[in-house]
C-alpha cells in the first residue's frame, strides 16, 4: 500500500516537471547540441561540409589572437564581477539591516528601476555620458577644469567595465539582499553579547551566512558579462573585442559556422570550469570559517 502511494506521488511529480523539462530541452539543450555538432564539422565555401574534424578546436587553441581575446574576456568579466559585487554588498546590507521593514519594498522598487529601460538604451546612454562631447566632458569644460575634452574615458576597458557594472548591479544586489534577509538577527546579538565588535561579528557571522547570495551574485554577473557583445561593440568602439564579438565575426561576417561554434563551445567550457573552481574554493572557505 505504501509503495503504491509513493509510486502515485512519483508519477504526479514527474507529470509536474515534465512540461518545464521538455521546454528546457527544446529551448536550451537543442541549440547547444546543434552548436556542439557544428563545431566538429568542416567549413566549406558558403556551406558546412558534414565531415568530422578537430581542426576547428586546433585553430582555437593555437591562434594567439583567440587566446588574447579570451584572456581579455576573462579579465573584463572578472573586473566587472569584482566591482559589481563589492559595490552591491553595501547597498544590500543597508537595505536589509538599516532600512525599516515597511520601506524595504520601496528600496527594492528603486533598485529595479534600471530594468524599466532596454539594456541597449542604457549602453547608449553611457556612450553619451562618456563621449567626446558627452555629459562629463561638457561639464568639466564648462567649469573650466579642462581645456579640451578627455579622450581616455571612452573606447577602453575601463568604460566597458563601468557600463557592465552599472547594467548588472541589480542582479548582484537582489540575491545578496535575499541572503542577508535570511540571517537570524539573534545570532548577531549573541556575537555582540560575547564581546565581539561589530566588525568581527560581520566577518565571523554575517559574511559567511551571506556567502550563498554572494556566490549567486558572482555567477549571475560573471557568466553573462564574459559573453557580452553589445557593450564592447558600442562602448569599446569595436577596438576592444571580446569573445562574443569574435564569434559574431566568424558566424556572420566570415560565414565560418564550424569555427564560430568551436569558439562558443570553448568559451562555455572555460566559464563552466571557472565557475566550478569558484564554487569549490567557496565551499572550502565556508568549511574553514565553520
TrEMBL record:
<feature type="transmembrane region" description="Helical">
    <location>
        <begin position="21"/>
        <end position="41"/>
    </location>
</feature>
<keyword id="KW-1003">Cell membrane</keyword>
<keyword id="KW-0813">Transport</keyword>
<feature type="transmembrane region" description="Helical">
    <location>
        <begin position="74"/>
        <end position="95"/>
    </location>
</feature>
<dbReference type="InterPro" id="IPR035906">
    <property type="entry name" value="MetI-like_sf"/>
</dbReference>
<comment type="similarity">
    <text>Belongs to the binding-protein-dependent transport system permease family. CysTW subfamily.</text>
</comment>
<feature type="transmembrane region" description="Helical">
    <location>
        <begin position="259"/>
        <end position="281"/>
    </location>
</feature>
<keyword id="KW-1133">Transmembrane helix</keyword>
<keyword id="KW-0812">Transmembrane</keyword>
<protein>
    <submittedName>
        <fullName>ABC transporter permease</fullName>
    </submittedName>
</protein>
<dbReference type="Pfam" id="PF00528">
    <property type="entry name" value="BPD_transp_1"/>
</dbReference>
<feature type="transmembrane region" description="Helical">
    <location>
        <begin position="201"/>
        <end position="223"/>
    </location>
</feature>
<feature type="transmembrane region" description="Helical">
    <location>
        <begin position="107"/>
        <end position="132"/>
    </location>
</feature>
<feature type="domain" description="ABC transmembrane type-1">
    <location>
        <begin position="70"/>
        <end position="280"/>
    </location>
</feature>
<feature type="transmembrane region" description="Helical">
    <location>
        <begin position="152"/>
        <end position="180"/>
    </location>
</feature>
<dbReference type="InterPro" id="IPR000515">
    <property type="entry name" value="MetI-like"/>
</dbReference>
<keyword id="KW-0472">Membrane</keyword>
